[in-house]
Predict the structure.
Amino acid sequence: MNIAIVASDAVTAGAVDDSDRAAQRAHLLAVARELGRSHHVTIYGRLDSPERRPKARLAHGVTIELLPAGPPEELSEEGVLRYAGDLGAELTRRWGAERPDVIHAHSWAGGLAAIAGADGLNVPVAQTLPRLRPLPLPARKTAPAKAGGTDSAARVRLARAIGRTASAVIAGCGDEEAELIRLGVPRRSITVVPCGLDVERFRRHGPAAQRGKRPRLLHVGPLGPQGGAATAIRALEGVPDAELVLAGGPPADALAQDPDAHHLRLLAKETGVDGRVTFLGQVPSATVAKLMRSADVVLTLPDDASAGVVALEAMACGVPVIASAVGAHLDSVLDGVTGMLVPPRRPALTARLARELLTDPTKRSALGFAGADRVRSRYSYERISQELLRVYAETMGEPEVPVQT
């Protein structure tokens, strides 16, 4: 199968202070490598730097092509959208010479460019849409929400138009599927294929980061108002003697100038737990698994979780997770079986669940084993690539590809 992946903003270099966005980028590249074992995959993106090679081999069977569309510099998502037509024209020229069997578009600009580029070619287009940002939760007494935290009506119309035009729409979780249906995307067009994980890197057995004697709670994620770190700090007040390690935000040497970190330090001082909170800043991806294996409980408490990768990583490492009951967490975390679910911004309930787990090693062990088994069987890149192949085959009108269980 000749597979074209259009991901105008997912193959650009640079750090991302958002665990879900970073995971989705890693997911795209890892699944492409998996598909490249048996198929030919080309990932198309926008050339965002004159110093980058326009064409490079990523792995066996996988090539990345960066096409000229707009200035060769990094642009915001809105900036990239302005050049989606130019990217589509470049794709038309490429695909006119070498027609793909199926096209899989990621991102808003990628979707528009793929649909334009495929016009008249009779090639099915599968689309993974970015999650629309939810409306803010009721006003909180900590830091004010940042401007631009919700999606505009124009973005909703764009999602509806792309979703209705694509041959297939891939949702990352059941919650996202329901959102697409509410937008007017036909239910029959939607298939849920979650974000995957490297189950060889994230596993129960392996080295762990150093730690002290205190029970350790670990929160991984952005430090901003909707990331859940403030809830974790407030919860620590109700978990005596435990320490809280916060991983996320800017690099460690920039934490002192970060307004979100400053607000959280003030919150920790106000609640009397500042002596038990450690800020690590941005943690290198290579050390995340070690850090997770050092924790007794991992907390992931965002207002929304489009990929829910932190919960998957913790489960894969055999560490019990307490996750906010939103987005992808509702699919991956089976409450009381593979982890614990809690409504967002509920520090008292989060503290109670943490106390229960810290005082019950048998339950922690049971959740850890069940979580690791679930991730390996459901969220491995091999399994995810098989599910995508089934979607591709269905859009092409071919017999269904069986998915191994």
About this structure: The CA atoms of residues 62 and 175 lie 31 Å apart. The first helix runs from residue 19 to 35. The mean pLDDT is 90. The longest strand covers residues 40-46.
